[in-house]
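Entry:
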Amino acid sequence: MRIVPLILAAVTVPALWPAEAAAERSPQVGAGSSVVRYRSDLVPDGAAARAVTASASGTLTTLSVRGLLPGREYGAHVHTKPCGAAPTDSGPHYQHVADPAQPSTDPASANPRNEIWLDFTTSPSGNGFAVSHVNWTYGDRRPGSVVIHETHTHTDPGHAGTAGGRLACLNLQFEPR
């Protein structure tokens, strides 16, 4: 396991929150603060990533990466727990309505409307970007991380939501309420 420094940026998207809601409370923003690499062959030295997720009126999540392998498909999802020494420490995908059967591979639960999917394909220089918007908010049950996987996410029954091995993980930290 190697912890890689992460570049952070403040992101505000005022158009997503009505003025009266913004005056009552600020959006819950979670930003990635460190990257844990599990596979250096697919996440090389010098690779960096940034994830920001904001939840107020729906949930908007962005992921940007640089320094990965060029022209390659990766999957990425928001997970329930923080990163750890083992790839599985980040737990399952965060689901708005949790599937009682875990790991969830039923398309009725494992889909981009109930989970946050951030699949991307890197450019010739190894950079990538993904965005997800869902119509629900985290509420009191907040996710812990964003995990980068080795393939784009599958959607077929019995494999829905799977995207191969866990390559890297970014912890999310939220602003206090």
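Residues 2-174 form a domain with the Immunoglobulin-like fold (CATH 2.60.40.200).
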